[in-house]
Design brief:
The protein is an alpha/beta fold and 406 residues long. It has helices spanning 62-77, 95-108, 172-183, 203-212, 275-284, 306-317, 380-386, and strands spanning 10-17, 20-27, 35-39, 47-51, 85-89, 114-118, 129-134, 142-146, 156-168, 188-198, 216-231, 266-267, 295-301, 321-327, 341-345, 353-357, 366-370, 388-392, 398-402. Helix 3 runs parallel beside helix 4. The protein is globular and about 60 Å long.
Length: 406
């Protein structure tokens, strides 16, 4: 188990950054460090905890990622009430770990009514918005919650709500989502807050407890601690990056496309395609399957993270050296945990910058890039830099790219 004991001694470490000093008081991590530190290009918060196990800014071993998901799910299992379970994750960073906690819970509690829904920043054609929330410190503040498919959400006095994020510092984002659910008339006997790192010092649980009143709020994390931030005198924070030239036609997701985030929900009682199933389908669609001696990098895109991770997991299960990472909207400075950075226009034709961190294309024999858009949403700058890559679009079609334009 990676979930740490409350009694473990805390260590103190200070990071001197361009914008100020970040001092952490945290428990020692089990096995290896769960995060590094980088500087954000964001006047609202100048620093970033860069997870080593998330697969968002650092390529991750799918097996190590799955172990983290299972560890979190095991921690959640100890707090479940007897009734149904509703899991939610946050776009874009926690879409994958939310789906992973749901997936592990579904495997561990066969027959239990368990549903998963993620917030999103893209509403599919024909989908109905349910409510919205704001994440005040984020580079992209608005979160849309869509009306879920039938069977995803069940609630009541014996139901457990599981909210999953990569980290929490104040609990405000958890509380915003809890308030949105409460405003829709949902009730839960217990709420479990799940994070990789919890910097709230108990504030997150107290904040969420005020929303549901009688609900019992519990916490599960891999590492707990607190931090102090001292801005450097006279430091002028950088503004968020402005708009970039639109790289493709405007794109809108479809509710039922083959490869897409679970924006309208997943239900444990329905069949779930495995990574091996997806990989077999891609080979049937024309993908030249990687060889046992290949070093393979699987890249997801933004919120489209869970299905690519399952494919990476299937490749690793075949004995192929595989790592997984995703593109992101998060603007970060080079330095610290960010050794490499590539910027390019977004996949969606909306005019914002996206990034790929800590990737050196020549380190990999094969690169599989998953995008929920059409392949034409992948900008030529990114493709040219990656070199040889197989692009898997939202319909499951495979386009091989070997330099130049698609």
């Amino acid at each position: 188990m990676l979930v740490l004991s409350e009694q473990m001694a805390r260590t103190r470490r200070t990071y001197d950054l361009q914008a100020g000093a970040l001092t952490l008081h945290a428990q020692a991590a089990a096995g290896h460090a769960l995060f590094g530190i980088a500087e954000r290009i964001n006047p609202k918060r100048a620093f970033l905890f860069v997870s080593t196990v998330l697969g968002r800014h650092i390529p991750v071993d799918p097996a190590a990622h799955r172990a983290v998901l299972c560890s979190l799910a095991q921690g959640v299992s100890r707090h479940l009430l007897a009734g149904p379970v509703f899991v939610m994750g946050f776009a874009e960073t926690a879409v994958g770990i939310g789906a992973g906690v749901f997936d592990c819970l579904a495997d561990a509690h066969l027959g239990r009514a368990i549903g998963y829904l993620t917030t999103t920043r893209f509403a599919p054609l024909g989908a109905k918005p349910w409510f919205t929330i704001e994440e005040s410190h984020s580079h992209a503040v608005d979160h849309i919650i869509l009306v879920p498919r039938e069977g995803v959400v069940q609630h009541g006095a014996d139901a457990t709500l599981v909210l999953v994020d990569d980290e929490t510092t104040t609990g405000k984002t958890f509380a915003e989502l809890a308030m949105g659910l409460h405003a829709q008339g949902l009730t839960f006997g217990r709420v479990v807050l799940v994070t990789l790192t919890d910097w709230s010092d108990g504030r997150a649980a107290l904040t969420v407890a005020k929303v549901f009143g009688t609900a019992d709020v519990r916490e599960v994390s891999l590492q707990k601690g607190t931090f102090d931030w001292t801005p450097r005198p006279g430091w002028l924070p950088a503004a968020l990056p402005g708009a970039c030239p639109v790289g493709c036609a405007a794109w809108h997701p479809e509710a039922e496309q083959a490869f897409a985030p679970p924006r309208m929900g997943l239900a444990a009682r329905e069949g779930r395609a495995s990574g091996e199933d997806m990989l077999a389908g891609l080979v049937a669609a024309g993908l030249d399957a990687p060889c046992a001696t290949d070093r393979v990098l699987v890249i997801g895109a933004g919120e489209h993270v869970w299905q690519p991770m399952l494919v990476a997991e299937a490749l690793a299960a075949r004995g192929i050296f595989t790592r997984f990472i995703t593109t992101t909207r998060s603007p970060i400075l080079l330095g610290g945990a960010i050794a490499h950075k590539r910027s390019f226009p977004d996949h969606y034709g909306q005019g914002f910058w996206m990034y790929l961190h800590n990737v050196v294309p020549c380190d990999w024999d094969r690169i599989l890039l998953f995008t929920e858009t059409g392949a034409d949403g992948v900008h030529a700058d990114l493709l040219g830099w990656l070199g040889r890559a197989d692009v898997v679009d939202g319909a499951g079609a495979v386009v091989s790219h070997a330099g130049g334009a698609l």
